[in-house]
Design a protein that fits this description.
Length: 929
């Protein structure tokens, strides 16, 4: 990034940061200047790139992000900051310079400090130039404020909001009506609209505590985990393919997705949730014995990231994978851009190059691998499978004992399969036939092998083959030109290797004394055949019946083996070669510096660093440190997840940059409220459901989205002080799910493997087939595959996140293509048709006004007004008249009249479909008040 590009970006960020300050704050010049609130954003925006934490980029040996550096004497003898003396402070002199060659920041680097900003800096220096740690590195600090309107707050949370409003002379909006609340709660907690029955049930519950009961009911539903699991999957950069280059499928990534859904539904404490994702393979069960399997799946968090598989340099590939993991860990759990310190000290935050490689050593000591997962369901299925196999084997053993009494005790005729007289098969003695020799096919063809067999005396003979087969490759056996078994060599032994070679009785045949030709055929492939055995029968009583019984048992065994439960697989990690790593100068693995002991971030830790075991990666200690509110980074981690939950409910976080709580991130609009909620989370044993409940039951959450206070829009037009509820557009998933849900056809099955779509090198036909699969699916959107290089277009148009990196906040766009999608997309049109069929076929709806009423209840959770009914009826009438004119048949033929009747009904469905599509295209359907 060039200097100019940096300053342009910084200027934009400065605007964002400044916007987080309320009008009340800006107006109150009597308050003392606060370093974190007022000064740090200015210095970070204009100065830290050249005079900040990064020693390699520091100019003039001046450091402005610490008091020690800012107050030190420079080589020229001046001091950038002289506490209590702005006139002697070189910083003020340089930023007030009129000479562009002396002014700071340089003219080519960006805009100069504004007069009001210079005045603020002077006030700060005059007051003593007090520095503080960045706010996010400080311990939690809050004091529940006193408020004038003591009847309004439902909890301490509301008092923080009301105190800010009262200070600005504002009042909160009234509570939303009950229909708005029930729709808001359903979408907010489940991502689905309430049905008319569910709305009416809430409206009919006039007992005290009805809303509280509704919230508790929704929190207990499994769809809660689907809704809030998707929020976390954004942060965890979930994808079902590696993306980047070859875009190979991740066939087992869905297990991590389902793990997240289950964990959120089960209210797994957040500190445990973090530990399972970073060290699920290493942590003990402790108080969670039921999670012995779940914790292993959780470690897939580290494995599901984007990878450049085509990278030929394995050392660089590993370093890039670790960097991707560190970037995700930093943003997801700490709200810090740790990866910025890969090449040098972080330019804005106090994260050193050594800190980066201390953490990197933990991940370099960790290997990604596909692992088996013996779930309780698998163990039960495997036990039942083994029981059935054992029973068949017992019956086969009994049949074998009966055969022994029937066959001639003399030595049978045994032939090596590879000793054929004629054939086009291959002989394998080094691979599948190692040490035994087998015949097999050279590829797709009509395979055959013929043997000239000398029979010493006439009689009835049993022909047996010994072979191995992982899949059934049936063929036939021909003796002297006559087919004797058209379904030979069809059984499955379990593998292609010698260890599974098994004898099978293939046929009974009458043979005279002399030379006979035995021919084995199969097409297009052949099992790996080792030997042939021909044995004369001395007792043929019951011979055929026994043979038929045994063949039936073998067929049952083959069929059963095809149903053998496969050991589930998962993407996971495990400790590998435990080691420290050396600093990669400028991020290059080819230019190594000093070795750095594995450890945590020095700046974020409140007390001593945890001791890492020499024989373990240190992921357990990392996970514990991240959520240790007393000695580790727990305060920051709590702030981060609290902000994510707040953002999910209000559409905007208490901090606008949820993945960056460092110096260049936004400041919290309500810092003490953030700390209060973070402390509540910790005190409630990190229960996220309890925090959800606290938020939903608050008066802040229940406010209406419309407020008549004339001062509010003028004082706080962006609603940063939360004087009303902000309207929110549904995310892409909720729009699609709601479209299908209102037709009563949504597949609400929880979890399971992905739909099969082509990911790697898809052709145009593959892409069309993928699109068809997406459009035909009735499953919730969270279960659709996320193909990193080809995300379903319905989702991308409504701002689905880039799964290549952790996304803390989705983009919010309003573009014409979104409206065009709702007008033309096959899914929208199809679901509008299904919705029309639903209301037209409902026997309880006797006329069109009732059908319109039902549509409004389904789509908006409210009845229509009379004007809306009249408008809908007029729409139907005009639409129907238009299409009937274009399809009318003037013929008197009775068959024509019948066809006309059918067309009339079809036209009526078309009119209703058009109405339904018009209503789902409306603002009210895709927005929540």
């Amino acid at each position: 990034m060039t200097t100019v590009e940096h300053w342009m970006r910084s200027s934009i960020l400065a605007i964002v940061i400044a916007a987080t300050c309320s009008a009340a704050d800006a107006a109150d010049v009597s308050k003392s200047v606060d370093y974190n609130r007022d000064i740090a954003p200015l210095l970070a925006d204009r100065c830290f790139a050249c005079h900040g934490p990064d020693a390699s980029a520091r100019e003039a040996d001046l450091r402005l992000d610490t008091a020690q550096g800012a107050e030190a004497s420079l080589e020229s003898g001046v001091r950038a900051i002289v506490p209590h003396d702005p006139g002697s402070s070189e910083l003020i002199a340089r930023i007030e310079q009129s000479d562009p060659n002396l002014r700071m920041p340089p003219a080519e680097a960006g805009q100069a400090f504004a007069d009001e900003e210079i005045a603020l800096l002077k006030r700060w220096i005059a007051e003593g130039a007090s520095y503080r740690n960045h706010w996010s590195f400080e311990p939690l600090h809050f004091q529940i404020p006193e408020v004038e309107n003591k009847s309004w707050p439902a909890s301490g949370m509301d008092r923080f909001v009301l105190a800010r409003l009262e200070a600005a002379g504002l009042t909160p909006a009234p509570e939303a009506d009950r229909r708005t609340l029930v729709r808001r709660a359903y979408f907010g907690l489940l991502g689905l609209p309430p049905t008319p029955k569910q709305v009416q049930s809430f409206l009919n519950d006039t007992r005290p505590g009805a809303y509280e009961r509704l919230v508790d009911q929704l929190l207990d539903l499994p769809h809660f985990g689907e809704r809030w699991g998707r929020h976390w999957l954004d942060v965890a950069r979930y994808g079902d393919s590696n993306g980047g280059d070859e875009n190979h499928a991740y066939p087992h990534a869905w297990r991590y997705r389902d793990y997240v859904i289950r964990a959120i539904n089960d209210d797994v404490p957040y500190d445990r949730f973090v530990a399972e994702q970073l060290a699920g393979d290493l942590i003990g069960d402790g108080d969670f014995p039921e999670r012995s399997t779940e914790k292993l799946i959780g470690s897939g968090f580290l494995a599901i990231g984007m990878k450049i598989l085509a990278e030929q340099d394995e050392v660089k590939k590993r370093a890039d994978m670790v960097d991707e993991q560190l970037d995700t860990i930093g943003k997801a759990f700490l709200g810090l851009t740790i990866a910025c310190a890969r090449c040098h000290d972080h330019k804005f935050d106090p994260i050193s190059n050594e800190d980066y490689y201390a953490l990197a050593g933990i991940l370099h000591s960790t290997e990604q691998r596909e692992q088996s997962l013996e779930t309780p369901q698998f163990r039960d299925a495997k036990s039942e499978y083994d029981r059935k196999v054992s029973e068949i084997h017992k019956q086969l053993q009994a049949a074998g004992e009966r055969w022994a009494s029937m066959l001639d005790g003399a030595a049978p005729i045994v032939l090596e399969a590879e000793a054929f007289a004629r054939g086009n098969v291959i002989v394998d003695t080094s691979n599948y036939g190692k040490q035994i020799g087998v015949i097999s096919d050279p590829g797709k063809q009509e395979n055959f092998a013929e043997y000239d067999v000398e029979i010493p005396f006439a009689g009835r003979f049993v022909v047996e083959l010994r072979y191995a087969a992982s899949d059934s490759r049936p063929g036939r056996i021909v003796v002297d030109g006559e087919e004797v078994n058209e379904q030979a060599i069809q059984h499955v032994t379990g593998s292609w290797t010698p260890d599974s070679q098994t004898w099978f009785r293939e046929c009974l045949v009458e043979l005279d004394e002399g030379i006979h030709t035995l021919r084995i055929e199969s097409e297009p492939y052949m099992s790996h055949i080792d030997k042939l055995r021909i044995t004369r029968a001395q007792n043929t009583n019951g011979f055929q019946a026994l043979y038929n019984t045994e063949q039936s048992l073998y067929a049952s065994l083959s069929e059963l083996r095809q149903q053998r439960p496969e050991t589930p697989k998962m993407m996971a990690v495990a400790d590998g070669h435990v080691r420290n790593v050396r600093v990669h100068r400028r991020g290059s693995h080819l230019d190594l510096g000093e070795e750095v002991p594995r450890g945590m971030l020095q700046t974020v830790a409140i007390h001593a660093q945890p001791k890492l075991p020499s024989d373990k990666s240190g992921r357990v200690q990392l996970a514990r440190w991240l959520t240790d509110a007393d000695e580790g980074a727990g305060a920051l981690a709590a702030r981060v997840i609290v902000n994510r939950l707040w953002q999910g409910h209000f559409g905007q976080g208490l901090i606008d940059s949820p993945n960056n709580m460092g110096t260049m991130g936004a400041r919290p609009t309500h810092p003490q409220l953030l700390d209060y909620l973070a402390q509540r989370l910790i005190d409630e044993q990190w229960s996220m459901k309890r925090l959800h409940r606290l938020i939903l039951l608050s008066k802040t959450y229940r406010m209406a989205s419309v407020h008549t206070d004339p001062q509010a829009q003028r004082i706080d037009p962006e609603n940063r002080l939360l004087w009303r509820r902000k309207r929110q557009r549904l995310e892409a998933e909720a729009i699609r799910d709601a479209l299908i849900h209102v037709t009563d056809r949504l597949d609400t099955t929880i979890g399971g493997a992905n739909l099969m779509v082509t990911t790697s090198n898809p052709s145009a036909a593959d892409l069309r087939e993928n699109q068809r699969i997406y459009e035909d699916s009735l499953r919730r959107t969270i279960y659709l595959p996320v193909v990193r290089t080809n995300v379903y277009d319905f989702l991308t148009l409504f701002d689905f996140p880039n799964a290549a990196t952790s996304v803390g906040r989705r983009a919010k766009t309003t573009v014409p293509t979104q409206a065009l999608l709702m007008m033309n997309n096959p899914v929208v049109i199809k679901q509008a048709g299904q919705l029309a069929r639903r209301v037209m076929a409902d026997p309880k709806l006797v006329d069109d006004p009732q059908r319109i009423d039902r549509l409004y209840e389904l789509l908006y959770a409210r009845p229509p007004g009379q004007a809306e009914i009249d408008s809908a009826l007029e729409f139907l009438s005009l639409y129907l008249a238009t299409i009937q004119r274009s399809t009318a048949d003037e013929s008197d033929d009775p068959e024509a009249h019948a066809a006309e009747s059918e067309r009339s009904e079809s036209n009526r469905r078309r009119a209703w479909t058009a109405l339904c599509q018009t209503l789902v295209m409306s603002h009210e359907f895709v927005y929540i008040n």
